[in-house]
Amino acid sequence: MEVKKLKTALVLEGGAMRGIYTAGVLDVFMENKIQVDAIIGVSAGALFGINYISNQKGRAIRYNRNYIKNKNYMGLYSLLTTGNIMNKDFCFNKLIYDLDKFDFKTFEKSTIDFYVTVTNIETGEAEYIKIKDLENELEYLRASGSMPLVSKTVEINNKKYLDGGMADSIPVKKAKEMGFDKIIVVLTRHIEYRKKKTAVYPYKVMYKKYPKFINAVKNRYINYNNTVEQIIKEENNGNIFVIRPSKNPNIKRLEKDINKVEETYNLGINDAKNRMKELINYINN
Q1: How many Å apart are CA 153 and CA 176, to the nearest integer?
Q2: To pair with 75 at 20 to 30 A between CA atoms, which of 3, 177, 204, 284?
C-alpha cells in the first residue's frame, strides 16, 4: 500500500519589528534542518521568512544591527521624504543588492513554495500570492509589509494592495484549505494578547474610496481574536504546532533600540530551541 507523504506548511505572523522574534525562530530551524513544503508569510513574517528559503542564517538580525538607526531604513524621516514608513529604495534595493546581499539563486532553487499575503484594498480581502521569481516580484513583498496610514498603496497588475495582516493576520485557515497535513505557526504575540478595537476614523478619511477595506479594518480585531482562539484550540488538540513568545516581547513596531531588538531575537532563539524536540516529534508523527 502506498504511504502518503505528509505536507507541512509554515505560517508566519507579521508585526513589523516584532518579526525579529520570528527571525530568531527561523535561524534555529535552519540549524536543525527543519524542512517544510511551503511558507505562508504575512508582512514582517514574509520579509524575514525569505531568509529561511535562501538559507541565510543570521541575515535578518545582522542587517538590523547594522542599519536600524539609519534614517533611510524606516521611520519618520522616510515617511516625510518618501511617503513610506519603510524606505523603498533602501529596503528593496540597496539593502538586498549591496549592503547585505540576498541570495536570490538559492531562493529560486528551493523546492519550498512561498506565499505572500497581501490585502486588496478594493475588495477588502486577503490574497495569497505564490512567488515564483522573487527578484521580479519584490513589490508583493513590499505590499505585504506596507502598513496603512504610513505607506503608499502598492499597485501591481492594476490591483491596489496594503499590509496583508489587515485582512488575514495569521492564515492558518488558508493553510488548511490548501490541504497541508501539518501546520507550524510562528506568532509574534504572547498567548494572552488580544487585539483591541481599531479607531476607524483615520482610515475613513484616507481610504474613503475603499469601503470594503474600511470594513476589513473595522472587523480586524474580531477576526484576529477569533483566529487566536481557534489556534489555541487546534494546538491543544495536537492538530497544529505553535511557537509564540514565552513572555511579552518588549519591543515597538518600529523599534530603534538595538538592545530590545536583540532581546526579542534571542527570545525567538531560546523559545525555538526549547521546543525543538516537540517540533520534530510533531513533524515525524
Answers
A1: 29
A2: 204
